[in-house]
């Protein structure tokens, strides 16, 4: 009886997740696509109701599957949140590699970095990262993610230092500048609407213009500026 119920749950999960594959797809591929759907649904739930307020039952209900079926694809909420971080940060790691264009100035690299960063923070996984933070993760999971967060900050500061060296960026404090700019972009998750006036690329361009040009008609520098 239990086996029959499990089989029925698996069939309903496949239908509700709207996954389609041919006979040539492996069991591993099928499992991964279903896990992808579970993680994405969970990210949306965390963003809408908060990590702590969201239960595994809530996530299963969104997918119209049973909680036991959910356990085929994820182990726990911590497992899901860790996967959200991994997928979001993978986007930025790829973006960082794309900015390593030898012919680009530091300013050009920064623009490419910030465009990718805005894509991240307006995506379901990026919103989840910014809204939830590292605190809900277990110490073991935080230890896996912390080096990646440092890598992103370090990459941004490295771009700044290149810009200082090639004179495409005005000399500033790298750490303060990183915190100011990325902090501003992170704040977008709390008010950005996907169907709003600007898409993520247009919003990134607007923010980049504010940071790169400022709001003064002509930039007035004090004696302490470089």
At the third CATH level, what is the topology name of the largest domain? Tetracycline Repressor, domain 2
Rg over CA atoms: 21 Å
Report the β-strand fraction as a percent range: under 5%
Please trace the helix and strand order, writing H or E for each element: HHHHHHHHHH
Ranges with pLDDT <50 over ≥5 residues? 1-6
Instruction: Supply the CATH architecture of the largest domain.
Output: Orthogonal Bundle
The CA-CA distance between the termini, in Å, is: 76 Å
User: Structural class per helix/strand content?
Assistant: mainly alpha
Globally, the shape reads elongated
What is the helix tally?
A: 10
Structural overview:
- The protein is an all-alpha fold and about 230 residues long.
- The chain has two domains: about 60 residues, Arc Repressor Mutant, subunit A; about 130 residues, Tetracycline Repressor, domain 2, CATH 1.10.357.10.
- It is built from ten helices and no strands.
